[in-house]
Amino acid sequence: MTETNRARDEVRNVVIVGGGPAAHRLADSLHARDAERTVHVTVVGDEPHRPYDRVALSTRLADGGADLTLQPTSMWDEGRVRLVTGERVTSIDPVGRTATTSAGTELHWDELVLATGSSAPVPDIPGAASSRVYRTIEDVDNLVSEARQLADVHGRPARVVVAGGGLLGLEAAGGLAKLGAHVAVVHSGGWLMSAQLDEGAGRALGRIISGQGIGLHLGARPSAIRVEDDRVTAVELTNERVIEADLVIFAIGISPRDELARDLGLGLGPRGGVAIDTSCATSESNIWAIGEVASFEGRCTGLVAPANAMAEVVADRILGGAAEFTSVDDATKLKLSGVDVASFGDALARTEQALEIVYADPARGLYQKLVMTDDAKTLLGGIFVGDASPYASLRPMLGMQLSSEPAAYLSASGMEAPAGDELPASALVCACNNVAAGTIRDAVNGDEHTEGCSELGALKACTRAGTQCGSCVPLVKKLMETELTKAGITPSRALCEHFELSRQELFESIRVLELTSFDEIVARLGTGRGCDVCKPVVGSILATQHGSYILDGGRGGLQDTNDRAMANMQKDGTYSVVPRIPAGEITPDKLAVIAQVATDYGLYTKITGGQRIDLFGARLDQLPDIWKRLVDAGFESGQAYGKALRNVKSCVGSTWCRFGVQDSVAMAVQLELRYRGLRSPHKLKFGVSGCARECAEARGKDVGVIATDQGWNMYVGGNGGFQPAHAQLLASDLDDETLLKYIDRYIMYYVRTADRLQRTARWIEDIEGGLDHVRDVVVNDSLGLAAELEAAVDRHVDSYEDEWAATLADPERLRRFRSFVNAPDVPDPSVARVPDQRGQMRPATDEERDRGEAVLVAGMTIPVRGVDA
């Protein structure tokens, strides 16, 4: 017997055709599970790299040096797993069970796994040969190089057209825009990410993308690429528009690479791909298919979670198990810096009698939707645009009954989610790696043989949770901290995986080191490129400490949607305008200006609970014109879009009221002008009442001031929301000067020491010593910080500049406020209005559009969907 034959008798040979993420997962799973060494694995990939993370291609685009190699890599260096790169399998013999590579190597197999992935299709149109695709590391590196070369040749930024408004297309567009290219996206759907988002979410996303300077051409496809002297010059669209271009990229989906399967005569899916059953077996015995080439229930998918799940099933089956692949988890999260988008479950509400809860918060202006059963109890899916922070916690609860009203789980509602929804052990936390909540808890707690994981990095390495797309990391961290607390262990206060420091420690480090940019901060104090958790925190800290324009110096990418637009996005993608009206006091002349602006722009008007006037329905491109009129009339930004002081509510006080004992209006105006624009961990609201009757509801505010015969009583830590809290008395009978000093100290101490997105009520509860400690710091100066905290507020007051006035004075800053970057004077035609029963203009419903009713758009009557133009 030859050596080869003896080897075949002792072990089974598994050949994996393809070297992508699915192949890596299968090889790693076989390596980890096969303790008896019953299989020998060979992976054949046609790329020259070790398997890498395609989900993170956008990071490679932003940082050409990013290493995307999938971990672990140790198995490649051991004898049981062999990796062949730069070769492809050209033929397969199912009878002799051999596979031949492009280098002429013949591989024997007992089990063959097709993991050939997919390719990026390019339509058959004139000039298509001159286009590019966004699929591999080589594609990304070549795009970066070509964009830079084109900029050098033309002496201007490269003009890039990306065909495809899905995940990959938007990642490519965003990355190239950050490199300085002028980018336009062409998408056949009526809104972006139309396969994952409903119209409201897609329209909102479109405005965010437009706000980054990326042009949008929706409802059209490229029909031809113009090429002159071997150079691309323009793209012709199916709607007869022509876009000038130097570079055209197609990211319009995936085509399964099923050529080998076709040659073998394997069963195929209706739209291509290798048909598989629940065991991931193909129509030929001992041949399996996983990943993007596999067609399950007639569908191929390009997401990492189902690919990994298929790999685990095949590993189990090859080793004698009976695992099954039963469903496709198509939850998605956009990996584009500055854009927070996610969807999961039945996001488009296709379930019969599904109930959709759509939330557009006037305070933050974000599009968030939950899809529920008709009794509003069981979670079926969700969509998030602008703030996807609820995604990580809600996605594992898919199919579960929520313990409270759905709005409580949406960050845009301002309510605090109930703490009673503990995930069952079987709840899927990390879809990419199929990690359940119970697995994470077990890893944290350990057992008699294994020490538990008390650090996030160790927990991720142990369970794999959060090691691929990363969207579940906040939930993984929360589960870890909960288990550690139960065990009597103080959990790490690390802000996120990129910063081991807590927010408080990060604030102090930035202050002491006098750091002024995110790049400096992450280089000195953190690792990686940051995330959706740490970037807004750093942006807030920099704004608090330096008081400079929040979107300058590269800080625009750190801000959320509303801060970038300096307005609150609404459910239909328009914005609301909230001018500051200190203490609710306003002259008739200023009221007239607001009334005229609302009339001229057809805006819905409402007096808010904070004694201000909110103007709804402004398009992005209208914001500068609206604010110019308001600024010229003496108004300034009310910062209703920011984590900052919102308003100071006041009663009329002693000026008019016969019960008033102090001038509450004058004090409220003084407080609002002193603390306006101060960025903080969460929004701040003040109230000033002129007597004990408390008409301003000051004890429901973060800072409440109530007049007495001797001066003012100061209350702190009052909050509304899902878990309301009454403010508590901090000090009594204060004169004006002392009151201001105490508020200075209290607010700045909160800004320095609170966690991210922590309201003052929860901060006082969590801080060691509670209210007594806060009182010692503020009143008794127990930490010796009083002068420093007061000086910080003084610097803020001295450096304050109205953000909208600064924007209007700078033409470059105004470039952000365009509906279409390549047609700045063209209004967004999707903004539709109808009059309501109370004489105001409101967004048109889909039914009203479908009926062909004329709607008012920025003062113009236009035809809408269902009506001939």
What does this structure look like?
The protein has 869 residues and is an alpha/beta fold. 30% of the residues lie in helices and 20% in strands. The strands form 12 sheets. Strands 3-2-1-7-19 form a 5-stranded parallel sheet. A 5-stranded parallel sheet has the order 9-16-10-11-12, covered by helices on one side. A 5-stranded antiparallel sheet has the order 21-22-25-24-23, with helices on one face. Strand 32 (645-650), helix 19 and strand 33 form a beta-alpha-beta unit. Helix 13 crosses helix 15 (534-546). The protein is globular and about 100 Å long.
Provide the fold topology.
Elements: H1 3-10, E1 12-17, H2 21-33, E2 39-45, H3 57-62, E3 81-85, E4 89-93, E5 98-101, E6 106-108, E7 111-114, E8 118-119, E9 132-133, H4 137-154, E10 159-163, H5 167-178, E11 182-187, H6 199-211, E12 215-218, E13 222-228, E14 231-237, E15 242-244, E16 247-250, E17 255-256, H7 259-264, E18 274-276, E19 287-289, E20 294-296, H8 304-318, E21 332-333, E22 341-345, E23 355-360, E24 367-372, E25 379-385, H9 391-394, E26 428-430, E27 435-436, H10 437-445, H11 456-463, H12 473-486, H13 503-513, H14 518-525, H15 534-546, H16 561-565, E28 568-569, E29 575-577, H17 588-601, E30 604-607, E31 613-618, H18 623-632, E32 645-650, H19 664-675, E33 684-689, E34 703-708, E35 711-716, E36 728-734, H20 736-753, H21 760-766, H22 770-778, H23 786-799, H24 803-808, H25 811-814, E37 833-835, E38 841-843, H26 846-850, E39 855-857, E40 860-862
Helix pairs in contact: 2-8, 10-12, 13-15, 20-23
